[in-house]
Recover the amino acids of this structure.
């Protein structure tokens, strides 16, 4: 997924009210939209280098949208924090055949209503083998030693989606939980049991029931975010 225009670099002053961030740019301070409803654990530290997209749509309240943050370390890494991006990133990867497990389907439908709890699935892939239901989750949090964590806050919605996927499997369909990891410094994904024990429990139940669980790491740059390679999902 290429960004539509060149991103603007700045320094994060603060993230607040969940959906807003003040950023110091070369020309002054701006308030940017922050499209991330999570806690943003470890990726919203004041003073961090950040990158914003710009929009000229007159009806938008905020001209800028926060897209990336640089997380310091022995080798600093860029993290994509915009939770509206993963579906587009995954759709592009499916179309390009970059996710082999989801290849071979003739059509793709997005945001399809389904389930017993009033849910919407991110993708329904359809082909001769029958439909495949794909739920995408954005991963930005990380612990030590290259471990990505999901979720970064209590996610009843995430647990609900896992329950819906488990019911699909029981009905003889193919459900897939796909974690889109928008950072390149992690080697596996684990449930964040210390943050949301219920989600971790529900994930383990879904796996035991036969729900396919995949994680793909993305390559993140100020020019584009693109699916790179598969990493394991580990539930110790």
């Amino acid at each position: 997924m290429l960004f539509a225009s060149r991103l603007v670099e700045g320094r994060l002053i603060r993230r607040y009210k969940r959906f807003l961030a003040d950023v110091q740019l070369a020309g002054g301070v701006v308030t940017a939209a922050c499209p991330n409803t999570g806690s943003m654990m470890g990726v919203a530290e004041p003073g961090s280098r950040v990158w914003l997209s710009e929009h000229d749509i007159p009806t938008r309240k905020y001209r800028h949208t926060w897209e990336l943050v640089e997380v310091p370390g022995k080798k600093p890494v860029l993290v994509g924090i915009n939770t509206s991006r993963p579906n587009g990133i995954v759709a592009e990867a499916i179309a390009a055949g970059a996710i082999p497990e989801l290849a071979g389907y003739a059509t793709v439908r997005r945001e399809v209503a389904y389930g017993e709890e009033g849910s919407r699935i991110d993708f329904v892939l359809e082909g001769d083998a029958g439909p495949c239901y794909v739920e995408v989750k954005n991963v930005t949090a990380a612990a030590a030693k290259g471990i990505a964590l999901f979720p970064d806050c209590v996610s009843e919605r995430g647990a609900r989606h896992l329950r819906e996927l488990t019911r699909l499997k029981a009905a003889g369909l193919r459900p897939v939980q796909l974690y889109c990891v928008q950072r390149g410094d992690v080697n596996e994904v684990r449930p964040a049991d210390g943050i949301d024990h219920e989600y971790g429990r529900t994930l383990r139940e879904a796996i035991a029931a036969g729900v396919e669980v995949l994680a793909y790491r993305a390559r993140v740059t100020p020019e584009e975010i693109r699916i790179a390679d598969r990493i394991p999902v580990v539930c110790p």
The first helix runs from residue 86 to 96. The chain has a mean pLDDT of 96. The CA atoms of residues 123 and 215 lie 16 Å apart.
